[in-house]
Amino acid sequence: xxxxxxxxxxxxxxxxxxxxxxxDYSITVDYSELTLKTGESYTIxxxxxxxxxxxxxxxxxxxxxxxxxxxIITAKKEGEAIITATSNGESxxxxxxxxxxxxxxxxxxxxxxxxxxxxxxxxxIGNGNWGxxxxxxxxxxxxxxxxxxxxxxxxxxxxxxxxxxxxxxxxRINSKNKIDFAYGxxxxxxxxxxxxxxxxxxxxxxxxxxxxxxxxxxxEHIGSNPTMISHALHTAEKNGGNSWSSRNYKVGIENNFHxxxxxxEKSIDDGxxxxxxxxxxxxxxxxxxxxxVDDVRQWPFTDNxxxxxxxxxxxxxxxxxxxxIFGNQILMKVDYVRVYQxx
Length: 343
Prior knowledge:
Elements: H1 2-21, E1 26-29, E2 33-37, E3 41-43, E4 46-49, E5 57-60, E6 66-69, E7 72-75, E8 79-87, E9 90-99, E10 103-109, E11 122-123, E12 138-140, E13 147-150, E14 153-163, E15 166-170, E16 172-174, E17 180-181, E18 184-191, E19 198-206, E20 215-220, E21 228-234, E22 244-249, E23 257-269, E24 272-279, E25 282-288, E26 305-313, H2 315-318, E27 330-342
Parallel strand pairs: 2-9, 12-15
Antiparallel strand pairs: 1-4, 3-7, 5-8, 6-7, 8-9, 10-27, 11-16, 13-14, 14-15, 14-27, 16-26, 17-26, 18-23, 18-27, 19-20, 19-26, 20-21, 21-22, 23-24, 24-25
């Protein structure tokens, strides 16, 4: 009889275990699809039926786009990721679309006034040998011969003439202590001059001593290389000939209007910044902040920078000036400068 009792007990326990194994579990999540902006977080809820003591395992198909921790989804950069919740051998998923938020115009100069708006711009006077410059040959003036607004366009004209002990004149303006920005989309529509020795530029500087302050060269062109557009970044550790730079080539650059811009992005990939360069809306180069490096000597591009527009002659990049080009007007024309920031 004792053996029969044990057999019945064993049968009863086996029946219980068998019943537990045959339970059909299901799992659902409260959203099948989500759209987030970079940097946003959202908590997704998973429900297991019937209730189970087993935990839920969360995974992301693309952690560079979106990560998940106990249901908390964090959008990292633009793209798509599938977030999956798994429990008791069952899974449920949510597709996450990560988008960069759109831009809003926060400042512009359309050059529609009769003269340069000095609330926005300073006019540089002199030559780079007096504290700034790169061995350039021009003397910058504020005369209308070199710097003026015509028909809604800023005109910077380089001339061959003897002035203040120099053989050439031109124009240069900057927005230091008037207009400055950190991050956003900065663009200008510019027509560049032609001719060997010309060196027009659209660029930005940080505050403080160079190169620790940082420099962003959105566009540089040299007339001796007519189809070339250069982008560059200068830092304390990478400056001068050691700086990061990228050259791109496009037919019809000179004496035609084209749009030059950057998208200066904050913390879009695992907390890292980047600067993207564009010509006519086409991405031409990208430079990322070094992963997990927060060092002003390597990446000073976290504070406000101001804008500079100038037309240099000669110098370390402009090279030898061909004086025959001055048979024509040497003009850098700027239709507008605009700054946008994320909404």
